[in-house]
Amino acid sequence: MIAFLALTWGGTLAGRAILRLSRADDDDVVAWLIAPAIGLAAAALLLGVTVAVGLPVRVVAAPFWFAVAAASIYAVAATRRSLTQSPAIGLAIAWLIALAMLAPDVAQGLLNYIGNPVGDGWSYIAYGNYLWELPNGTTGSLPPLQQYASHLAHTRYVASSLLAVVSPLAAGGGDTQSAAGPVIAATVFVFAASASAIAWLTGLTGWRAVVASVLAAGSPWVLGAIQVHNYDNLIALSFAPAIVVVAGSREWSIRTGVMIGWLLAAAVYAYVELSTFSVIVLGVTGLRRLAAGRAGNWRGAAAAAALVCVVCLLPNARDLVSFAGAQVNSARGALGARPGVGYFPALTQLSEWPAAFWGLSSDNDLAAGRAAAAAASASAWTCTAAALAGLVVLVRRRAWDLTAIAVVSLAAAGYFAAGQDYAYGAYKFVLIGWWVIALALVAAIDALWRTSPAGRAAAVFVLIAAVYGNSVLPLVRV
């Protein structure tokens, strides 16, 4: 558990230190809950740049963990009094969600994580071992494992390099297989905490933030990402919420722009194809600040963000552009050549919506009989109505940027599902925007809860439907 603890609590403290140093911690509760995402983004950027300039991860590992330790000590000294009950509970809940999502692996030991037969996990692990030993791009006359991994040299590498840098705390330097479990569990923790942070930011505090955390990180789509070994995708999930917090919770300044710039660069390094989603998130959040007249020095912030982002990306710009173009062409290419073909097929069957959207059209549900199918349909339609109502509630709360983000995510998912007949592409956009869907559900539940006793009963009914339709708790659907 040492590796998992270092990633979760060490990453949280490092992120909290960054927020304090950048003076982006106006709200202590939100700052603590978004700190894991800030820490993960900093790690992604550091590994992205150092690997790009040709450093093997074994050279970076000791300075990396020294920096985490130093930042953690600073955070404890400078911010410990701000860790009140509310963020402490939120972080603890996120930690428990992460362990619950990998419960079978936790039971046998996270270091023994073997995942499932999907080949991507093996490639991440092999590439991580390669990056531990060698500068990226090295090829020829290598041991078989590393020679295989060398063909990935011009692809995404943040997840593999994170496996490598964590390996000394797992079973030994370069043993990236043992690092896989802690890294995956840590990404779920970060996402759960980020969802809770966004809930607090929009006024959905207390138990409401806990529900948002559970519905976001405990969803079938996050479980799907774990099962198909989307390590990069899991890392990137929390960067958009982090950008919303940094860009949407305080007036813009040069300092804000610098922080936004390196967050965007981290998003590109981690998952270049979907980093445009982070740019869209920044754009609509910035527009909301401008419309409210609270953008501050937005021109200076925008210039600083662009400059910092470009400078951070320069070391690997050629590979990033080439790989992004190849991925886009692949997604738009012939059906048999697309990555992920065969995964999440219900998303392209329009008759299965909205059940497919809520992960309720699996073979297990169909095999359970008509009663289960009827319950799944009722739950799906209830969740859909509640989520739509919740998006309206968010607009009324002047958080219309979050509703716009959800619309973009849903429109992109619909395009790939109906326009491209590409379920895997649809899944990607459902997953990347799921934190807003979870927030909308909680906003609807909260609105009902505040009305009357009858409204509270309705809120409980929606909550039960949301847990049934959005939770991966297996016993609920048996």
Helix content: over 70%
Query: What low-confidence regions span 5 or more consecutive residues with pLDDT below 50?
Result: 362-367, 473-478
Structural class: mainly alpha
> What string, H for helix and E for strand, traces the elements in order?
HHHHHHHHHHHHHHHHHHHHHHHH
Radius of gyration: 21 Å
Annotation, overall tally of beta strands:
0
User: Gap between N and C termini, in Å?
Assistant: 31 Å
Number of helices: 24
Proportion of residues in β-strands: under 5%
Count of the domains: 2
The general outline is globular
Average per-residue pLDDT, rounded, comes to 87
Main sheet: strands, sense, barrel: none
- Say what oligomer this is: single chain
Could you characterize what this model shows?
With about 475 residues, the chain is mainly α. The protein folds into two domains: about 1-315, no CATH class; about 345-475, no CATH class. It has helices spanning about 1-20, 30-50, 55-80, 85-100, 105-110, 120-135, 145-150, 160-165, 175-200, 205-215, 220-225, 230-235, 240-250, 255-270, 275-290, 300-315, 315-330, 365, 370-395, 400-420, 425-430, 435-450, 455-470, 475. The two termini are about 30 Å apart.
Using brief descriptors, characterize the structure shown.
478 residues; globular; 24 helices; disordered C terminus
